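Researcher: Checking consistency across runs. Here is DNA-binding response regulator again:
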Amino acid sequence: MIPRQILLLSRPRHRIRIAVLDDHPIVALGVATYLRDHADFDLVANVSTIDDLFIVLERGGCDVALVDFYLPGDRLDGATFIRRLRVEAPPLAIVVLSAARASDTECVCHRAGANAFLEKSTPLPLIADAIRNAVASPRKFFVMREARLQALVPHAREDTLSAAEIEILRHIAEGLSVTQTAARLRRSKKTVSTHKRSAMRKLRVSDDLGLALFLKEKFRC
């Protein structure tokens, strides 16, 4: 067999066509440059806005969207954006690459319809593997555990909450402060604050931003 025939046989039958969406140019450039070096990948777009990504998808020819979760300049929040992607491009594999903590975000991404969630600190080779796995096993959800990829369903953190904690979170989700919640429920501010801290610990959220993200998804109107 001549060298040219060997080269042709070694090429993947179908290159995975990838669109990258990230509003941070350095991150986008680094990831895109790395993916271009793989024979089984075809980087079809590297965009910085949701609208630009949907234009790419309308043209067809894309298997995977590697997307950021927080895009401050865009009109859609992360969960809404992923749900819209899933509705408008059902066959698309959606891999979320985010600066958000996995404990704060991976459950939200899974419920919204993504195929994988990775933090931006994930080594590039594992990002490439997550893309391959998302295409090969579209019914699974991939995350990082102990420095390796695993397919699992993220634990529903709210299942660990007590009835009192859920009641207080419902009021906070309506926009009430701890003081306002205490007044409405006729409980002390200290009691409400204690339940809130306990709920945040169970939900593995470290600040009010993480809690707000959870509440938006869990108690959305």
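Researcher: Does this match what you'd expect to see?
Model: One thing to look at in this run: The two ends are 64 Å apart (CA to CA).
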